């Protein structure tokens, strides 16, 4: 079982101080958070990709390459790589380069993002979002597995006997997760290729994501990659921790109430009841996270969103200390003990290189 954190890289005003970090400060804070994640024993750090304020991570491979040089164990990933508006050739080459620099500690998550205007900024039409995702990934999949590719499609110029460089490390492409909040077509795509499926699992009730994950599992088995319960599933989640739950609620409430995404909507209590958000003690986080397996079956990766809504860096680092010391060891032990022997672990470069995934 892999545990980690994912970030969207938002620059948000801290309601306690009325101040927002600069882009420089936010970028440096994300790096510090990644280093802390490895320090406290987490497995994964994943960054989003955005090309508009108030977000800063427009170049994930640049950031992850820098983090790779300062870590030794952390798996470096994305929580969205925009398969719709990035050129598949550039994705193939950028992530293969990162793979070499990080000694294989790389995977990535394909997604369409949540910012409509990004499509025309990169010369695409949002109405073609799903076809773009399907066609672009088909090309990317080939570029990593075939040394010479000739290809033509609808959305980019043809390729004639093209070789992307560098080639994937050890001839093994980075493992790919397909992330989706609402699209069954993406669950189908993940199943077709035998890739992982990551359910964001933040803003919506569990029933919504259960339908997507069940579809993915069914189609994974249909395409002959294994039994449905052997499909590779990842989940998101949100937590805010303090040793005492009342302290957590009191401290987090102003951040929740003023957050650009969910502030000024449902109350904190309503939101925590209806979604995976947990605000409380380490034991409360453990208890709620363990219910995810009951809802979705055995899964391979759990990522938490912890550095959003204007939370200061100091607070986020304190959160990671609590997570690493009091939460993850218990979750890892419990979930690993419950996972049947035939259900694989999350793929890594080492396991894929050796042909072993369990």
Task: Describe the protein.
This protein is α/β, with parallel strands linked by helices. It has a single domain (2-354), classed as Luciferase-like domain (TIM Barrel, Alpha-Beta Barrel), CATH 3.20.20. It contains 12 helices and 13 strands. Strands 3-2-1-13-10-9-8-5-4 form a 9-stranded parallel beta sheet, covered by helices on one side. The chain starts with a strand and ends with a helix. The mean pLDDT is 94. Keywords: Monooxygenase, Oxidoreductase. Pfam families: Bac_luciferase (PF00296). It comes from Amycolatopsis coloradensis. GO terms for molecular function: monooxygenase activity; oxidoreductase activity, acting on paired donors, with incorporation or reduction of molecular oxygen. This is 5,10-methylene tetrahydromethanopterin reductase.
In angstroms, what is the radius of gyration?
20 Å
Taking all residues together, what is the mean pLDDT?
94
Spans where pLDDT lies below 50 across 5 or more residues = none
Query: Would you identify the CATH H-level superfamily?
Result: Luciferase-like domain
At the first level of CATH, what is the class?
A: Alpha Beta
Strand content: 5-15%
Q: Based on Cα principal axes, name the global outline.
A: globular
Overall number of structural domains? 1
As a percent range, the share of helical residues equals 40-55%
């Amino acid at each position: 079982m892999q545990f980690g954190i994912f970030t969207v890289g938002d620059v948000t005003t801290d309601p306690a101080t009325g101040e927002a970090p600069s882009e420089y400060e936010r970028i440096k804070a994300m790096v510090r958070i990644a280093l802390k994640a490895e320090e406290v024993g987490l497995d994964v750090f994943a960054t989003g990709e955005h090309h508009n304020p108030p977000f800063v991570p427009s170049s994930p491979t640049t950031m992850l390459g820098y983090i790779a040089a300062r870590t030794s164990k952390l798996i470096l990933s994305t929580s969205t790589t925009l398969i719709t508006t990035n050129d598949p050739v550039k994705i193939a080459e950028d992530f293969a380069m990162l793979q070499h620099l990080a000694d294989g500690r790389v995977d990535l998550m394909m997604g369409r993002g949540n910012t409509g205007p990004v499509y025309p900024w990169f010369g695409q039409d949002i109405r073609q979002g799903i076809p773009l995702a399907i066609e672009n990934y088909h090309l990317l999949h080939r570029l990593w597995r075939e040394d010479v590719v000739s290809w033509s499609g609808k959305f980019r110029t043809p390729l004639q006997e093209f070789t992307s460089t560098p080639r994937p490390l050890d001839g093994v492409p980075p493992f790919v997760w397909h992330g989706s909040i609402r699209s069954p077509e993406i669950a189908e795509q993940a199943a077709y290729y035998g890739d992982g499926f990551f359910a964001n699992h933040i803003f919506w009730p569990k029933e919504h994501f259960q339908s997507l994950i069940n579809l993915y599992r069914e189609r994974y088995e249909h395409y002959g990659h294994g039994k449905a319960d052997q499909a590779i599933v990842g989940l998101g989640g949100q937590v805010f921790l303090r040793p005492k739950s009342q302290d957590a609620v009191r401290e987090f409430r102003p951040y929740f109430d003023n957050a650009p995404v969910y502030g000024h909507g449902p109350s904190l209590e309503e939101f925590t009841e209806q979604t995976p958000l947990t605000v409380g003690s380490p034991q409360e986080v453990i208890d709620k996270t363990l219910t995810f397996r009951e809802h979705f079956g055995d899964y391979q990766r759990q990522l938490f969103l912890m550095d959003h809504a204007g939370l200061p860096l100091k607070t986020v680092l304190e959160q990671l200390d609590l997570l690493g010391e009091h939460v993850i060891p218990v979750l890892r032990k419990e979930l690993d003990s419950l996972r049947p022997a035939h259900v694989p672990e999350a793929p890594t470069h080492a396991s894929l290189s050796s042909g072993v995934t369990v």
